[in-house]
Amino acid sequence: MKIENIVRPTLSGLKDYVPGKPIEDVQREYGITDVIKLASNENPLGASPKAIAAMLEEVANRSHLYPDGSSYELIHSLAAKFGVTPGQIFMESGLDGVITKLGLAFLDPGDEVIISQYSFPAYESIVLKMNAVPILIPQTADYRIHIEGIFKAVTSKTKMICLCNPNNPTGTIYTQSEFERLLAAVPSDVLVISDEAYYEFVDDPTYPQTLTYLPKAPNLLVMRTFSKVYGLASVRIGYAVGDEGLIKCLLKVREAFAVNRIAQAGALAAMDDDDFMRETISANRKGREQYYRAFDRLGIRYYPSQTNFIFFEVNRPGVEIYEAMLKMGVIIRPLIAQGLPHHLRISIGTEEQNKRAISALEKVLNQAP
């Protein structure tokens, strides 16, 4: 059998997505037992105690049952929180699942999808898988999404615009006024996707509250997740909010049991734990400042973040820094795969984790290349 004769041709040039290196891999490869992972923007405080209790109870008593395919309780709770109808919410297995369903529901071969140059790789991946065409728009000099460049790139073939705000991996945002200019300039039959995985960490008052635009922008779809501030990355649960017509299209390509029972129970309980969310956001702000002070002292160029990670630049190959820190048991994220050979991304951990990462980074920078 010749695989190339049966696989879809569009997959032949598709690059694999490489996630943050797991702790277990570093332990095996380097024989290190004490490893910290600051590569995947996970919550260093873990998950809400209420969510953990709810998930354990679900595992103990209902593991043998299929989940509620409609995620009824969770969707109704989210709808009440955001002031939308339950029919405006689409639940999936993480935002990766939502992004995949966007491709399956809306993209045909040859459709153009506008994406910012340095952004979440999953957008370009699903576009290529659907044999559509990604249009990459260069960012500004300070690594912000170039909103004017985005809407000027719209053509008759444009089907979708994918925006990440705050942007991953740069941690930067575009403002409310920029967002309003984009909505005004984009035709109503072009989907505007606003990925807000890091929404809860934002403290910039100019950040757009996109859900308020939904009544007048039926082509807008807002994506959020329980992976980051809620600490539920392992159970995979994300969602989209938008026009009921768009949600119905997404439901047509969704699996019957897309969100598992444990994830639904954890997410529902996490929504009721405001204390944990406040603790997470407070610790994250302190961690940002901890890194800023260290980077200023070390002369490292960094970009102020509105997320739970920091994007920074070094004067040598980023992979070299990454590999040297691995040997010290600290995992961060090199960005060469995204076309940024001298940049890295580091997640904000606990105070002690941050201290260890800063110490390791300083030792590596003081070594000869």
Topology:
Layout: H1 23-30, E1 36-37, H2 49-62, H3 72-82, E2 89-92, H4 94-106, E3 112-116, H5 121-129, E4 133-137, H6 147-152, E5 158-164, H7 176-185, E6 191-195, E7 220-225, E8 238-242, H8 244-252, H9 261-270, H10 274-298, E9 301-303, E10 309-313, H11 318-326, E11 330-331, E12 333-335, E13 340-347, H12 351-366
Parallel strand pairs: 1-11, 3-4, 3-5, 5-6, 6-7
Antiparallel strand pairs: 2-8, 7-8, 9-10, 10-13, 12-13
Short description:
The chain has a 7-stranded mixed beta sheet with strand order 2-8-7-6-5-3-4, sandwiched between helices. The chain has a 4-stranded antiparallel beta sheet with strand order 9-10-13-12, with helices on one face. Strands 1-11 form a two-stranded parallel sheet. The chain folds into 2 domains: 137 residues, Aspartate Aminotransferase, domain 1, CATH 3.90.1150.10; 222 residues, Type I PLP-dependent aspartate aminotransferase-like (Major domain) (Aspartate Aminotransferase, domain 2, 3-Layer(aba) Sandwich), CATH 3.40.640. The chain has 369 residues and is of the alpha/beta class.
Could you explain the architecture of this structure?
- By secondary structure, the protein is of the alpha/beta class.
- The protein has 2 domains: 3-46 and 274-366, Aspartate Aminotransferase, domain 1; 49-270, Type I PLP-dependent aspartate aminotransferase-like (Major domain) (Aspartate Aminotransferase, domain 2, 3-Layer(aba) Sandwich), CATH 3.40.640.10.
- The protein has helices at residues 23-30, 49-62, 72-82, 94-106, 121-129, 147-152, 176-185, 244-252, 261-270, 274-298, 318-326, 351-366, and strands at 36-37, 89-92, 112-116, 133-137, 158-164, 191-195, 220-225, 238-242, 301-303, 309-313, 330-331, 333-335, 340-347.
